[in-house]
Amino acid sequence: MSTLELEELRVLITALDSELLELLAKRQQYTNSVAETKIRNQIPVRDHKREEQLLIRLIKKGQEYGLDPHYVTQIFHVIIEDSVLNQQALLAERANPGSSLPLNRVAFLGDKGSYSYLATQKYFSRRAGEVLEIGCSSFAEIVEKVESNHADYAVLPIENTTSGSINEVYDLLQHTSLSIIGELTHPIKHAMLVAKETDISKISTLYAHPQVFAQCSHFLAELGNVEVKPCESTSAAMLTVNQINSDSVAAIGSEAGGSLYGLTAIKSNLANQKENHSRFIVVARNVVKVPLQVPAKTTLVMSTVQKPGALVDALLIIKNNQINMTKLESRPIAGNPWEEMFYIDVEGNVQDGPMQKALEELAATTRYFKVLGCYPNEEINATKVAAVNALAE
């Protein structure tokens, strides 16, 4: 194949890519119209049976064109997830008139390029209005910005699949009047980033946030005699490496963030777990109403009376009301040795009957009880298609 033929093929592919984008935009417009219908008729956002039928039909159609069933499934899982999240955002916006702002002031940890920055961009890309980014140097400062009305929202990491829960954030939630209004899960892909072309053997100093060091502990152990220097955020680590501009220093952060500071990756996939994700929560001064058509989560905080079985009794209330608990986290109560505050995530909407009954019972049996927020569940589980394997044979 000549160079000319190759260029001609690339032109054709580029044209097809543009057509694909145009078709995806049209599809998104149609799904937004579907959301309007669901709002009027109180229809749930997701219909797993229809999604399964759709995927099976698309897999069969794809096979007619010689496309692998798993390839088709992966593509349409992404498309369906995007459709679901867009519909949920539209329904939530309609359920909370007046909540849309022309300018969303959002506080987060670090500066441009930090994982919190990337999560902020991802979450608010589906919301109306522009985003004013307010970088902060600590979790306490982030919360204070919203409490004092210097920001409308805060984005806070709450847990990571490798390093676990972020205790400082849980402790802040115990004492703030802010409400959780949203969540998102963001993939965390750590890379070693440098300002100058170098070899990994030359690196003598590494900069990163302490959580990042914890998530990459296996890599650090293999690296050997390298000095690790904690920074207040991944963006601060990247900025430091940019300013030092030496072939012996590196930062750990995302490649996307590093590019904003002129850094390049010399090694990727550094986390202990290759499927490394962080869950972020979005908090604001006012609660939000979550439409019943939208899958919801509710986060609770409580302390129980000091008697045997008190926690079990509280958890049985959740079980007996057929509510699924997705997380239980305990934190010590400051000034009360050996006493714990319990944070609980459950699947359910505070407007729903069983949830209301459970909340009333918990409030009556616990020593301290508070709903920290009810918000749309943005963990979109892909619809499973049992027929894929059979079709692939």
From TrEMBL:
Q: Name one GO biological process term.
A: chorismate metabolic process
PROSITE patterns to which the protein is assigned, alphabetical: ACT, CHORISMATE_MUT_2, PREPHENATE_DEHYDR_2, PREPHENATE_DEHYDR_3
- The source's superkingdom equals Bacteria
Q: Give residue ranges for domain Prephenate dehydratase.
A: 105-285
**Pfam families linked to this entry:** CM_2 (PF01817), PDT (PF00800)
One Gene Ontology cellular component annotation?
cytoplasm
Designated name of the protein: Bifunctional chorismate mutase/prephenate dehydratase
Say which species the protein is native to.
Answer: Aliiglaciecola lipolytica E3
What does the organism's lineage look like at the top?
Bacteria, Pseudomonadati, Pseudomonadota, Gammaproteobacteria, Alteromonadales
